[in-house]
Amino acid sequence: MRLVVLGGGGFRVPLVYGALLTDRGEGRVDEVVLYDTDPARSAAIARVLADQAAADPAAAPRVRVATDLDAALHGADFVFSAIRVGGLAGRAADERVALAEGVLGQETVGAGGIAYGLRTLPVVDHIARRVAAVAPDAWFINFTNPAGLVTEAMSRHLGDRVIGICDSPVGLGRRVARVLGVDPGSAEVDYVGLNHLGWLRGLRVDGRDVLPDLFASTALLEGFEEGRLFGADWLRSLGCVPNEYLHYYYFNRETVRAYREAALTRGAFLHRQQDRFYARVGDPAVPALTTWNAVRAEREATYMAENREAAGAGERDEASLTASGGYEEVALALMRAIARDERTTLVLNVRNRAALPGLDADAVIETPCRVDAAGAHPIPADPLPGHALGLVTTVKAVEREVIAAADGASRARAVKAFALHPLVDSVSVARRLVAGYTEVHPGLGYLR
Ligand code: G6P
Ligand code: MN
Fold first, then answer.
1. Cα→Cα distances 53→62, 267, 269, Å
2. Alpha-carbon distance 399 to 417, whole Å?
3. Substitution candidate for ligand 1 out of 150, 166, 296 with most atoms within 8 A of CB
4. Whose CA is nearest to atom 12 of ligand 1?
5. Which residue has a Cα nearest atom 13 of ligand 1?
6. Over 80: is that where the pLDDT of 135 sits?
7. 10 Å Cβ neighbour count for 27?
8. Cα dihedral 36, 40, 46, 51 in deg (nearest 10)
9. Measured on CA atoms in the order 198, 200, 201, 207, is the torsion positive or negative?
10. Residue 119, SS3?
11. Ligand 1 binding site (Cβ under 6 Å of any ligand atom)
12. How far apart are CA 127 and CA 445, in angstroms?
C-alpha cells in the first residue's frame, strides 16, 4: 500500500508517519513517498522519519523522496495533501494585509481564508487534474487549509474520492467526553457545519445524549478549552458547543484587537519558529526527532493564544493538549476503513448529497460519515437552527465566489467574495483587500 504525501516536507508529516508505525495489520501502508517543491524540506523531514523508524526499521514503511509530481503520484493508493502555497511567509502576509484594514487575517476564517484560498486553488486544481489522469483510483485525503473550500474545489475533478479532514471536531468531542467522564471512544458526536464553522449539538453514549449533563453544570461547562473560550453563559444561550474557530465570529472585535496587539501574529510566529527548525535539522549533528518534538510542543502550547488571551481563558491545559483530535489518527482510521473495510464513523469534509437540509448536494460540509471500502457516506443530520444555517449558507456562498474567481481569474469575483463575507464590513474594504493582497502575493498575479 503506497501513500504519497504532497507537501512531504511539511512539519506535521511525522505525526502521520508516527500513526503508520502503530499499524501492524495486514494491508497496511508499507511505502511513503514525500513529494515537495522544496527538496531541503523533505530531506529534513525524512531525517525525522528515519529517527522515528529506528526502533524497528524492518517494520517501518519505506520512505522515498520525489520532486516530480506525476512520477510521485504514479501507483499511489492514497494521496495526502498538506501543501501550503506561499509558505508561512504567505500566511503572515495574509494576516498583515487584513489587520491593516481592521479585519481578521486568520488562515481559514474571513479575509485571510479568502486570500489563502485564492492563492491555493490554481495549485490544487492542477494537482486534482494530475491525480485524475495519473492515479484515478487513488483516494485523496486533503489537509490543506482552508480545508472545506479546497476539498470542494477538488471534488469537481475527483468526485467523492477526495475527502477533507480536520482534527478540531474530534478534539471537541473528546474534550467534552473527558470533562463528562465518559469514554471518548464510545461517544458519538452530533456535529455539523462547514470546516471550522460547525456546532456540537449532542454526544451520544449507549444511546443516551449526555450533552444536557454538561449544560447543567457551570463548572463542567468551563472545564474544557471551548467552554473557557466562549464562556458558560454564551454556550447556554446557544444550547450547543461551537467549534473553536467560531470564536472569531462570536467575539470578532476582541479577537481582531488581540491579533493587532500581539507582538507577532500566528503566521509570523510560526514562520520564525519553522525557519529555525528547518535550518537546524539540516545539520546532521542535530538530533532530528528530539528537535522536532520540542518545536511541536511549543507550537501546540501557543495554539490560538490570542483567542485565549482575548477570552481570559488562560493557558492550554494538559488534557486539552493530549485530547487534541489527533489529525493523524483520523487520517489513519480513514485509510484503514477504505483499504480494509474496517467500518467506522468519522467527522469528515464530504459532499452533502442530502445529509444537511438547506445546502445543495455538491456543497462540501463537515459532518459525521460512515466509512467503508466504498468511501465516506454522510449520515443524515438534523437541520441547523436559523442563525447557524444563515452563517453556513453565507460562508458557502463566499467559498463559491472564491472558486469562481479562481476559475475565471476574475478580480471582480474576488472583490465580491471578500465583500460578501460576514467578517468584512464594507465593499470598500473588500476592494482595498484585493489591492493589498495582489500587491504582496505574486501567486495572485493571475487575477484580471
Ligand atoms: C488545528 C486546525 C488545523 C490547523 C492546526 C494548526 O488542528 O484544525 O486546521 O492547521 O490547528 O494550527 P497552527 O496555527 O498551529 O498552524
Ligand atoms: Mn482544521
1. 9, 31, 30
2. 7
3. 166
4. 303
5. 303
6. yes
7. 14
8. -150
9. positive
10. helix
11. 145, 166-168, 266, 270, 299, 303
12. 19
The CA 30 to ligand 1 mean position distance, Å, reads: 27
Q: How many residues does the chain have?
A: 448
What's the 38 CA to ligand 1 centre distance in angstroms?
Answer: 22
pTM of the predicted model as reported, rounded to 2 decimal places: 0.98
Q: Which atom of ligand 1 is nearest to the CA of 168?
A: 8
pLDDT value at residue 182: 97
What ligand 1 atom has the least distance to the C-alpha of 304? 14
Residue with cell string 479575509: 111
Cell 455538491 belongs to residue: 362
Mean pLDDT over each residue of the chain, to the nearest integer? 97
What is the whole-number distance in angstroms between the Cα of residue 134 and the centre of ligand 2? 28
Query: C-alpha angle with apex 367: 362 to 369, nearest 5 degrees?
Result: 95
Angle, helix 110-134 to helix 427-440, in steps of 10 degrees = 60
Is the confidence at residue 206, as pLDDT, over 80? yes
pLDDT tens, residue by residue, 356-369: 999 999 999 999 99
Give the residue whose CA is nearest to atom 6 of ligand 1.
303
Ligand 1 centroid, distance to 273 Cα (angstroms): 15
Work out the angle at residue 312's Cα, subtended by the Cα atoms of residues 311 and 317, and round it to the nearest 5 degrees: 105
Pocket test for ligand 1, best of 12, 91, 108, 298 (most atoms within 8 A of CB): 108
Q: Which residue type is seen at 218?
A: T
- Going by pLDDT thresholds of 50, 70 and 90, the confidence category of residue 316 is confident
- The CB-side HSE value for 204 (13 A sphere, CA atoms) comes to 8
Buried b (16+ CB within 10 A) or exposed e, 35-68: bbbeeebbbbbbbbbebbbeeeeeebbebbbbee
List, in order, residues 6 or more apart from 398 with CB less than 8 Å away: 114, 417, 420, 421
Number of H helices, E strands in the chain: 21, 13
What pLDDT is recorded for position 108? 98
- The half-sphere exposure of 349 on its side-chain side, counting CA atoms within 13 A, is 32
Give the atom of ligand 1 at the shortest distance from the alpha carbon of 196.
8
Mean pLDDT for the stretch of residues 248-277: 97
Q: Give me the phi and psi of 162, to 5 degrees please.
A: -100, 130
Indicate whether 325 pLDDT > 70. Answer: no
Residues sharing a CB contact under 8 Å with residue 117, sequence separation 6 or more, in sequence order: 146, 149, 150, 399, 402, 406
Distance, CA of 382 to CA of 386 (rounded, Å): 12
Q: How many Å lie between the centroid of ligand 2 and the Cα of residue 361?
A: 22
